[in-house]
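ok so dumb question maybe but i'm new to this and my supervisor (M.) told me to 'just get the structure for CHAP domain containing protein' and walked off. so i did the thing. is this what she meant?? sequence i used:
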Amino acid sequence: MKRTKKIDAIAGALIASLTLIAAGTAVIAAPPQQAQAVTMQQYKAKLQSQSDLKAKLAGVNSQLAAQILELNDLNQNQIPAAQQALQDAQNSAEQAQAQAQAAQERLEAAKQDKADLEEQIKQTGADYDDAKAAVAQMARDSFHGTTASEVMNVVMNSSTTEDFVNKMQADAAVTRTESNAANDAATELSTAKNRGQRLAAIEDEITTLKRKADTQAAAAQKAVETAQAKQSELNDLLAKGNAERQSLESQKSQLTSQSAKEAAEIVTMEAEINSWSSSYSNQQASPSSGGSQAATRKPSNSGSSSSSSGSSSNSGSSHTSSSSTASRPSSSGGSSSSSSGASGMNYSVPGSCPAGSSFCYGHSTGNSGNAYPARQCTWWAYIRRQQLGLPVGSYLGNGGQWASKARALGYLVNNTPHVGAVIVFAPGQRVTNWYASAAYGHVAIVERVNSDGSVLISEGGTKCPYIPYSEVVYNASSFQYVHY
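this is what came out, is it supposed to look like this??
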């Protein structure tokens, strides 16, 4: 009876579990959360940026001005929107694939439940047959012999009275066991009928789960195809932006005013930073790689004028973009050194610190490979510093900790922006139209110091629609910078 109750409890639990699984499917299949729309503040900021750019292009050839504005629109609106659409599609595809996998696992679990129950039903029949055979043997023994003959047999074969008693008790025990087995088998046979009903219910549930699994698999496949289409659209926009950037580079000589030259330089640099994103979209960070893939990229001159003070003083005086530009990965793979300096700093970009260096500029770098989480701001900052030949540590902590931890290692840290420096945002500090994580802070790389004191940065992280992402940050002296 104990065995019967245990099996009934197991079978009942299986049915209850299947019912809960079916009820929970609607919850699991809930649509993904939609991305938030651009805020009014962000919208106004974009309009103001476009208006400011137009003002800087006053007097420029209308065709060339239109090309600069088009490239800026690609940088600021079309490419970010396409990247966000891709990210949403990829998230949907991942969720759909997870749901399809879960549905398949539920189906397999139900099939296993069915197999287990069928085995139990089969075993019940075997137990009944064994007990029936034992009872039949008892009947045959009774027909061919009598109780008296059995007693005489025991007496004749017993050497002592005690032996006689033990043999009689043993025979009685065997008889009781066989009788109990027959009774249990009859009960089990009755229970098997209930198990048969449960088996039919599981078979119905398998049919339902099979339909759901097929539907989820089809939805997952469609979501993957949508993500692939979004990736293709983004690639087309990036290719368009790259073509327009190259065309604009060849026409810069037509720009006469300093403001127009700087505006074109910023727009083309943003487009180039955007073009890098495809190189890092699927790259994963690992201590073994140490960011070596990025470090093998050759820096190239940005094309604007530069100068180097070569000063070793720490005066912290101001520095503007007219004499500073980033050296960036070149699609051609060639390189030319670009000397760019700021008062208080004696390094140029690219620097002279070989990738992976554990000691550089007179102090330990703390570099033992890229140990930062993939695609986060610290991950990108490590990669970009390696590209620029500047020292970088592997365990500088969360973004907001980089200034203090780098200073402890011997890095120069101050409030003066410089091309290639790590800009450090304290936890909760405003970046542009968003704020650094209140728990972790944020870091980015200064790619350009502009004439109005703002800085163009490249960055990674969860707030960036793609990596690397570019933004212009104002109030540059409000932040700390890790130099060399």
